[in-house]
Amino acid sequence: MGTTLVVNPGSSSKKYALYNDGEPVIEIRFEKTNTGFETCLSVIGGQQTCESVSAIGFSDAFSKVFSSTRDYLKQANLSELDSIVVRVVSPGTFFQKHAEVDKEYLDQLNKRQASAPLHIPTILKEIKSIQKHYPKIRIIAASDSAFHADMPPQARDFSIAVKDVKKFDIHRFGYHGLSVASVVRRIHSVIGQDPERMVVCHIGNGVSVTAVKGGKSVDTTMGFSPTSGLPMGSRAGDIDSAALLELMRVKNFRPTDAEMYLNTNGGLSGMAQDSDIRRLLDRRSKHDPVAVQALDTFAYNIQKAVAAMTVALGGLDVLVLTATASVRSSELRCLILSGLTHLGVDVHQDRNDLFVGKEGVVSSNNSQIKVVVMKTDEMGEMEQVARQLNLPN
């Protein structure tokens, strides 16, 4: 199978992993902390080492990844990289498939920058760094919306003029597809079954809820761009179009200004001036009314989305909470799940408290819906994509 480097530049962090014969051997992550930036390197089966990095070091993260990867391959007597796979988040039917990154792909990605300003510029910069350090290697784009490509028309289409839909390629593309696909791939190993009707809540800095029927996406909250859907860390999610037009008028916004406003001044950051759920939960425990209101709004929107997805599924068998925020915090899970008792959700408090940073079932034996906490495995899913495309170097 060879060696594959997985590159996952997110909206608030950068994650990398080196796979050899389908198994991860080193993992490297860069993320923003309360005091600046940090990078952590883990050798599988060994110890994790972390250190602070400058803003420049965070921006040029791939240079460190290149050095660490080269050193590891040399020490382990492994061959050079066979492929590099990059997570791509971009609106467009063109991007709803996994593909090789070539000139046409980069041209198309450049054209879409304004539609996903938190993601595409970072992706393009990452690809440029890869090409600088590995000028001859083949780069594979793992589409974050490919999992949603076959959603039924009633979920995929907006109620606008058909001619504009066709001419300008305006659809609900959906995102977090790699995360949801990883849940579908691994759910049997966690609960011993493959549920027919499942809702997956991806709750991190980005937030989405997806209805999965028979292993396939049938609806999801994110729409044309990853800005849309539910309130997130700093993204507003869905907003009344007239309210957005009013904001553009009173604030003299151009389209690019409005796009950045929705991406950076919305969600928890807009409501509570902080996008870190851990800090907001701490403020909530101290009865800070701003944090209470922000988290109540955040949870309420997720609850509504879960209920709406039961329409797409015709019921619900399993509810999965995945991604960093929901895996780390039993308190956040309680806040969300407490509003779903009418659907038949019954949380087992001891189990919920036990599974912090772990995977398992947190619902009671009497719960009509099985509630599961699972770690997302976008990196492993991307490695699977690279393997399936079978693009030799």
The parts where pLDDT drops under 50 for at least 5 residues are none
Helix content: 40-55%
Side by side, the strands of the main sheet go: 5-4-3-2-1-6-8-7
Count of β-strands: 14
Return the CATH architecture of the largest domain: 2-Layer Sandwich
Q: What is the CATH third-level topology name of the largest domain?
A: Nucleotidyltransferase, domain 5
Please state roughly what percent of the residues sit in beta strands, choosing from under 5%, 5-15%, 15-25%, 25-35%, 35-45% or over 45%: 15-25%
Distance between the termini: 12 Å
Give the CATH class of the largest domain: Alpha Beta
> What is the domain tally?
2
What Rg is obtained from the alpha carbons, in whole angstroms?
Answer: 21 Å
Q: How would a crystallographer describe the biggest sheet?
A: 8 strands, mixed
Write out the CATH superfamily name of the largest domain: ATPase, nucleotide binding domain
Number of helices: 16
**Could you spell the SSE succession in H and E letters?**
EEEEEHHEEHHEHHHEEEHHHHHEHHHEEH
Mean pLDDT: 93
Question: How would you describe this structure to a colleague?
Answer:
The chain is an alpha/beta fold. It has 2 domains: 3-148, ATPase, nucleotide binding domain (Nucleotidyltransferase, domain 5, 2-Layer Sandwich); 192-374, ATPase, nucleotide binding domain (Nucleotidyltransferase, domain 5, 2-Layer Sandwich), CATH 3.30.420.40. 41% of the residues lie in helices and 21% in strands. It contains 16 helices and 14 strands. It has helices at 55-59, 61-75, 103-111, 120-133, 153-156, 162-168, 177-191, 241-250, 255-264, 267-272, 277-285, 289-313, 324-328, 330-337, 349-354, 378-389, and strands spanning 3-9, 13-20, 23-32, 37-43, 48-53, 83-88, 99-100, 139-143, 197-203, 207-213, 216-220, 318-322, 360-361, 370-374. Strand 13 (360-361) and strand 14 form a beta hairpin. It starts with a strand and ends with a helix.
